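Please, structure for the following, as tokens.
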Amino acid sequence: MTPPCGFIAGTAGADSIAPCHRKDDGMTHMVGRGWALTLLVAAACVPAPLLAGPLANGAFAPSTFIVSCDCATPAKRARVQRRIERAGGRILYSYASIGGFAVTARRPQDGAALRRRLTHISGIQSVQPDTAIRLAPPGAPQ
């Protein structure tokens, strides 16, 4: 199932409208830059227990997060951004279309502490680890 035209937000600076789909040899291909943001938002929806396994085995704690916020006005967005920076975060990207930011800890080892601080900031609605999603090849069992 493909999203409707214009639904996908761009990731190279400003939001963009996806120019629908193009046909090539009978196959449908996504067109536009929005697929990366779509995957990023999907990664933010991964349940926390699925992410807990590697942490329990002594792997690494994430240090980059997707933060959604109540950023309906420029003043609210600026206020949340200042609070993120005071909490030790560095803004990597601002997602106007989803009302949020990509935030990283200034030092990778401070990721867990930053996540705890971010969850207590007024105006922040969710803090999810920024993770990569690997798609299964076509026809693979789900």
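DSSP finds four helices and six strands in the chain. The mean pLDDT is 72.
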